[in-house]
Amino acid sequence: xxxxxxINNIDNFADFSRRxxxxxxxxxxxxxKGIVEFSNSHIRKCFQESLLKIPSDLSxxxxxxxxxxxxxxxxxxxxxxxxxAMPGLQEVEAYLTVKQAPEIEVDSFLKSGIPYxxxxxxxxxxKNQQRYLAESIACLGVDAKRATILMMWAATIAHIxxxxxxHKIKGFNTALTRRSDRYGKLRIxxxxxxxxxxxxxxxxVCRSAKIVSxxxxxxxxxxxxxxxxxxxxxxxxxxxTKVINFIxxxxxxxxxxxxx
Length: 260
Description:
three-stranded antiparallel beta sheet, Arc Repressor Mutant, subunit A, single chain, mainly alpha, 13 helices
């Protein structure tokens, strides 16, 4: 089971606190990935793959969950590693509900996007892109329009990250220094460094560094807005045509255009 599938089986996940999400991720790692002891980086990756903001004080949160007589986490054998304690395990199982996915008749128009994505996934070498694109296909195949958009956006951002690290890191860092906000002090050396920058700011820096054209910047801004709409509960109807347009725009104008 993928992390997105796990989250989709949890009622009202958007309402859960950061603390509860950490426990859920610890449970997922234990039950579905066989990772009994985990580190800060494991939980950071879970937040990232769930398309959630990574808490800036994640280390402190983990430490606080491992404090006290009936703590939800216990410290692992290595420094700054943790595992679920019995109270934490019981807490998760108390509110965890697993829903059986109903049989869904997928819109034929949506089905047309699956071969398109399958061709793309065969051309990319990055493990991040392959994983996100594979999950996009899985979501598209069960008529999960919003999830498809979330995973397609994640695949695109992962691709731009990899492209910058491979070809444009110097120019990106130079553009960062021109900013007057706190991000102007950052210096990017690795993939995780890029995840510290909000995506809207990241797109601005890419344009400033001339990594993407102004037309591509407009596409990314528009798609980020759609992605944000789909990431939060709302009454907005997501039509099949919008999903396919979302996929085509990002594949044709970003993923295949900026080759690694």
